[in-house]
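Quick one: structure tokens for this chain, please?
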Amino acid sequence: MYLVKDKNYPASLIAVEKEIVLNDLKKRFDIVVYNKQMKPELIIECKAPFITLDKSVIEQVQRYNLTIKAKYVMITNGVSDLVLDENNNVIELPDYGSFS
């Protein structure tokens, strides 16, 4: 709801729990947001509130992004979150209107 209500992401361009193949292994990502051209802009890895958002969680979502190739990655545990751009800079989650 945060993505749709606060950041103006169209619900129709948000995919939840889809399967990808990574190094011949089937994996599931939590959330991917597409731009209007249906190119991935944001991949989000969701963890339980008691999971610390550490380097291993960042590495997990970045491994998924090797296949998806989104511009931004985000990790969240519902308590805190972290968004990285394509240069691994920590940024604020962009509004959907800033996507190409």
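Residues 51 and 77 are 7 Å apart (CA to CA).
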